[in-house]
From TrEMBL:
Protein name, per record: Peroxiredoxin
PANTHER family tied to this protein: MCG48959-RELATED (PTHR43503), PEROXIREDOXIN-6 (PTHR43503:SF4)
Top EC class, one word: oxidoreductase
Organism per entry: Chryseobacterium endophyticum
GO molecular function: thioredoxin-dependent peroxiredoxin activity
Domain of life (superkingdom): Bacteria
Keywords in alphabetical order: Antioxidant, Oxidoreductase, Peroxidase, Redox-active center
Active-site residues (renumbered): 45 (cysteine sulfenic acid (-soh) intermediate)
C-alpha cells in the first residue's frame, strides 16, 4: 500500500530492541516519529540514530515518541546500539523495530524496488495523536536526514493544530506566522491580539501566538 498525508497510520505488532510492542500502545496519546533505515551497521544510519538519541529532551518537550525500523534482527539491533552509543557518545533509549520479514516495511511502503529490492529506504513519518500521518520525507540512502528540520516541522504542526495559522518559508519557532486565507482580516484582528500586518489581502502576518 502507499501511505499519503492525512491517512491513518497502520497499527502493527513488532519485535524491537526493547522487546515486543504494539505500535498504537507505544505511541499512546503522543505524537510519533517512525523512521526507517537501510541496514544495521551502516555509517549514515549510525550518525542518524546517535543524533536522534541526543534529541531525546527536545522530543520529550514536544510530547513525541520516536521509533526506528530496520530489516535486520533484534540481536543485530542490540549489538548495533552498543556501537552507536560508543561512537556517537550517547545512550539510545528508543526502540528499533526488527522487520526481517519486511511486513512492516511493506505496510508503510518503505521498500522502493528501483532503489533496492530488499532494503528499506531512508523514510520518516510524523504521526499525530489521532494517528494521522502529517509528514512524509524520503531521502536517498547516501544522505543523512536533517533532524533540525524534523523538529522545525514538528513545532509547526503542533502550532498549527493549536491556532488558526500557517508558517511561512524558513519559519523558526518564535518567528511571525501567516493568517490563512480562510480567516478574514477583520476576524484575524479579533483572533490575534498581537496585531495583523496585511501585505496583500491574501498575505497577512501576525506574531506567533503563545503556545
Amino acid at each position: 500500500m502507499s501511505i499519503k498525508l492525512g491517512d491513518t497510520a497502520p497499527d502493527f505488532q513488532a519485535e524491537t530492541s526493547a522487546g515486543d510492542l504494539n505500535f498504537y500502545e507505544y505511541l499512546g496519546d503522543s505524537w510519533g516519529i517512525l523512521f526507517s533505515h537501510p541496514a544495521d551497521y551502516t555509517p549514515v544510519c549510525t550518525t542518524e540514530l546517535g543524533y536522534t538519541s541526543k534529541l531525546k529532551e527536545e522530543f520529550d518537550k514536544r510530547g513525541t515518541k520516536v521509533i526506528a525500523l530496520s530489516v535486520d534482527g533484534v540481536e543485530d539491533h542490540q549489538n548495533w546500539i552498543r556501537d552507536i552509543n560508543e561512537t556517537q557518545e550517547t545512550d539510545v533509549q528508543f526502540p528499533i523495530i526488527a522487520d526481517k520479514d519486511r511486513k512492516i516495511s511493506e505496510l508503510y511502503d518503505f521498500i522502493h524496488p528501483n532503489a533496492s529490492a530488499t532494503a528499506t529506504v531512508r523514510s520518516l513519518l510524523i504521526i499525530d495523536p489521532e494517528k494521522k500521518v502529517r509528514l512524509i520525507i524520503t531521502y536517498p540512502a547516501s544522505t543523512g536526514r536533517n533532524f533540525n528540520e524534523i523538529l522545525r516541522v514538528l513545532d509547526s504542526l503542533q502550532l498549527v493544530d493549536s491556532h488558526k495559522i500557517a508558517t511561512p518559508v524558513n519559519w523558526q519557532n518564535g518567528d511571525d506566522v501567516i493568517v490563512p486565507p480562510s480567516v478574514s482580516t477583520e476576524d484575524a484582528r479579533k483572533i490575534f491580539p498581537k496585531g495583523v500586518t496585511e501585505v496583500k489581502p491574501y498575505l497577512r502576518y501576525t506574531p506567533q501566538p503563545n503556545t
